[in-house]
Amino acid sequence: MSARTLAESVPPVTDLPESKQPRQTNRFSGLWERSQTLIPTLAALVLLFGMLIYAEIAYGRVFHAGTMSSLLVSFAPTIILAVGMTIVIVSAGIDLSVGAVVAFSSVAGVMLMNIGVNGWISMLLMIVFGAIFGLISGVMIQYFNVQPFIATLAMMFLARGLASILSTTPVIAPEDSPILLLATDWKIIDGPKVNDFTITPGLLIALLVVLGGMFFMHRSRSGRTVYAIGGNEGSAQLMGLPVARTRVWIYVVSGALAGLAAVVYTAEVGGKAQNVTGIGWELDAIAAVVIGGTLLTGGYGYVLGSIVGVFVLAALRLIITKDGTINPEYLTIITGAVLLVFVLLQRALTRRRAS
Amino acid sequence: MSRVKTALRTPWFWAIIGIAVLLLINSIKNPAYLALSVNPTTGLLTGNVLDILRVSAPIIMIALGMTFVIATEGIDLSVGSMMAVGGAVAMQTLATIDDPTSPSAMFAAIGLALALAIVLGAINGLLVAVVGLQPFISTLIMMLAARGIARVITDGQNTNATNEPFRQLSNGQILGLPTSFVIAIAIVLIIAFFMRRTALGLMIESIGINPHASRLAGIRPRPILFGVYILSAALAAVGGLFSVSEVMTVSVSGTGNLMELDAILAVVIGGTSLAGGKFSILGSTIGALLIATLNKTVLFLGIPAAATPAFKALVIIALVLLQSERIRSFAFGRAKPKGTPPGPAKADESAPVTKEKEVVA
């Protein structure tokens, strides 16, 4: 208690004179240090553009407003999950429960709408359900010293099992439900024929989540605490940062974002919810975060990098569907291989920094 | 009295109580639950208990492999996919050879399945021991990749095959017990012998306790880490063989799906600490039996099979909470916990303050 009041009474030190005028060598070494942490993200960007250009040359119609907007809309839930996962992984944790939480939230939410609960309140409750799963994981991890992946694996099974208890057959939201409004097409650029750039409110929500995530991680005090926990928890504790409270919040936010992803996804598929939704989505989110340059050991990472990671996965899927000769069976192997390459790249970079 | 106390402290003692309670619940629902009878057409014993033993065989296999991986402070999330790989290789081999009676086809299938699993296990070992990746991310990647490999092997089909000797693995009986269960127990005994009668088990535990210190003590961690991941993959493939031989079909997305939690759960129930450093082979085996009983009980009570994960999750949450220092010190009234829990515990913070106040008063 006393530690926290002390930390709050000390003003944030932002403009020390030496940080304003660094010596030349310091600036260069700082630049080198920064660019090193950016290498995986830059590699992901290069890969992304390489893949898109390859796809454009090989199959055509890729840099095409229609293709791009449908790709973006279909990956909106993954974008939301990736933002949550970035926060968790930067704090040196992991959240394996997000896919199952999407399943539970969507089934529970649609069932609430079907028994006559107001659609907007149901959508809010979907987010709350996600937050509750996150709260349980967070409390287990922080106060009972359970490893993050065990705690969230347990939540994954709990959420999946509860979704199956609610219904093992698809449930469909009523036709006048406001959730369907989230999938309305908004034409931004009216191109020739079907070549329109359209976005949906769901995609807009994903965009807001990305902006919110960037602000939280890079501009807010709690965001700095997340980085501090991931860098060295003991030091963060000794500095008087609110480690316990922040860590529980990290998992609550991740769970709530999974609930929000459930809202966006359910809207996009026309209000249909199933207990088997979201199998493997946690892996997509983790892969996106890792490809985007966030260190699995915590402490380094960018929200925007994870979005690049999502686009890499999206481009991968685009190429495989456009090609048609690649066996869809290979998709998981290719995703695994890309993930492995980026993990190895991270490993090589961190090892060099350590030595 | 002291013996009772030791029994109460043994984790697998509670697992046996759990099995008994579940069997009791089933017996209350149907008093004939535990009865055995002879099937007139095949002349074999049938009964719910034998069913439980048969479905427990694959779980015992993956739990055994997971025990050693967890004892080195690692984790193997790829066991479920590895089961699918083992099953897919076996079914594809049997379907290609297409000789319904030949035992040599069975041995070819088993040999190829084990060989591929050993290669994949070695990749896990390479990533963990040589490259130095975190075990859970290396095996998570393998979990993705191995499931894909199983799909590629069968071309995305759920291959089925006929081979009587292979079918007997799960459907045959030795002395009234399912063959797969007898083989599983034999494998457990052989491995337990090597682990406990040689220094191997101690070396594995020492890596889990402190890799640096064990290295200074002259134990080379690399071959041992390679060994545990290869063993885990090979045992998972055996588990996959057992589970496909039951129906003689491999379901590339269903075989071994979500079984990695079963394995982790069985190991934790058996008293192996997730922090590494000690393992109990007997405990993991009994833990696997508890999981099999739980699976069958949920089905027997008419709850949809897809809901079983929720019950397992509740069991694992209860277990990890019981393992945590905070609950232990609270429940058993021990003095200060040994390991400092991360994060200031509210109770811990307020405790010294109240003491001081008492002193002042």
Per-chain topology:
The complex is a heterodimer of chains A (355) and B (361).
Chain A: H1 2-9, H2 17-20, H3 24-59, H4 65-74, H5 76-90, H6 98-114, H7 119-143, H8 148-166, E1 171-172, E2 186-189, E3 197-199, H9 201-219, H10 221-231, H11 233-238, H12 243-268, E4 272-273, H13 281-291, H14 303-323, H15 330-354
Antiparallel strand pairs in A: 1-4, 2-3
Helix pairs in contact in A: 3-14, 5-9, 5-10, 5-12, 5-13, 5-14, 6-7, 6-8, 6-12, 7-8, 7-12, 9-10, 9-12, 10-12, 13-14, 13-15
Chain B: H1 2-9, H2 11-29, E1 36-38, E2 45-47, H3 48-71, H4 79-97, H5 103-131, H6 135-154, H7 164-171, E3 173-174, E4 177-178, H8 179-197, H9 200-209, H10 211-216, H11 221-247, H12 259-269, H13 281-300, H14 308-323, H15 325-331, H16 346-360
Antiparallel strand pairs in B: 1-2, 3-4
Tell me briefly what this model is.
With 355 residues, chain A is mainly alpha-helical.
